Amino acid sequence: MYTPGQFAKRVGVSVKTIQKWDRLGILPAKRTITNRRYYTDEELAAALQLPRQHKPRATIAYCRVSSQAQKPDLQNQQAALEKFCKQQAIEVDEWVLEIGGGLNFERKQFLRLVDRIVSGEVERVVLAHQDRLVRFGYQLLAHLCQVMAHLSRMARSRLERWRKRRRHAGVA
């Protein structure tokens, strides 16, 4: 990821030229959440007219529970997602299993996932339910995924059946 200054230096033009290219749509910049411009290796290759290198993007399944006491639920959640992915013919490249509160935006695995989405390394994120990723602010992350990656969730009916089985088994 390059700032406009770093990018301009590599391309051999001024920052004003980079900003103008962005405004005119010649070489649009990506934007951070705070609306700052940034550029990737792909834009650098386009600016220098180099052949583009397409990195394979990952499909990541994300499972989370709030506490150590719920660790068995983490395994159940993973099993349910494995079944869902198999039924939907989704090949998962990486499983992220995390224990931490959904209100905590400083979870290491969560932040690593967001960084990878922003950098374009993630093609798809698979969740059992939206609150497994975050309790609040899901719409922002869904928008980020819509722009940068694909977000898949288990169908509501499958999730409800999974929760019902857990309740009957005596798991809250």
Keywords:
4-stranded parallel β-sheet; Multidrug-efflux Transporter Regulator, Chain: A, Domain 2; about 15% strand; 2 domains; alpha/beta; 7 helices; two-stranded antiparallel sheet; about 170 residues; 6 strands; Rossmann fold
Q: What's the short story on this structure?
A:
This protein is 45% helix and 16% strand.
CATH hierarchy: architecture of the largest domain: 3-Layer(aba) Sandwich
Given the helix and strand composition, which structural class is it?
alpha/beta
Radius of gyration: 20 Å
Task: Please give the oligomerization state of what you see.
Answer: single chain
**Total number of domains:** 2
Low-confidence stretches: none
The fraction of residues assigned to DSSP E strands is 15-25%
CATH class of the largest domain: Alpha Beta
Q: N-to-C SSE series? A: HHEEHEHEHEHEH
Number of strands: 6
What's the helix count? Answer: 7
**Averaged pLDDT:** 81
CATH fold-level assignment of the largest domain:
Rossmann fold
Gap between N and C termini:
43 Å
CATH superfamily of the largest domain: Resolvase, N-terminal catalytic domain
Biggest sheet, open or closed, and with what strands and sense?
Answer: 4 strands, parallel
Outline, from the CA principal axes?
A: elongated
Major sheet: arrangement of strands? 4-3-5-6
Q: Indicate the percent of residues in helices.
A: 40-55%
